[in-house]
Design a protein that fits this description.
The protein has 95 residues and is an alpha+beta fold. It has one domain. Helices cover 22% and strands 44% of the residues. The chain has two helices and five strands, in the order αβββαββ. The longest helix has 13 residues.
């Protein structure tokens, strides 16, 4: 019984959600993006713990700096939510 209770607590504690969201406010014509070339990737994340935070920055500028990108072509946002904390990351692709 004790093992089942511990397993249930671990399952609930490790479960969470994730999603990918696209910013519909700024749109780009993806027909002009050459997907045959190799893109650099940059990522910037911010984390919230319970009701505290965010800690860190998830801006496009920070993600581009982290990846050494001077021309951003595609931007993606990723959200991960867990019971005690959540994380929002911005991933940029470009040259």
């Amino acid at each position: 019984m004790k093992k089942a209770f511990v397993a249930a607590i671990l399952a609930v504690g490790l479960s969470g959600c994730s999603a990918v969201a696209m910013n519909s406010g700024n749109t780009a014509d993806l027909n002009q993006v050459d997907f045959q070339k190799e893109f650099k990737t940059g990522e910037a994340c911010e984390t919230s713990v319970l009701l505290f935070g965010p800690f860190g920055y998830s801006s496009v500028v920070d993600a581009a700096k982290n990846g050494g990108i001077s021309k951003v072509e595609v931007v993606e946002q990723r959200f991960n939510s867990y019971i005690l904390f959540g994380q929002r990351c911005t991933v940029v692709y470009g040259e």
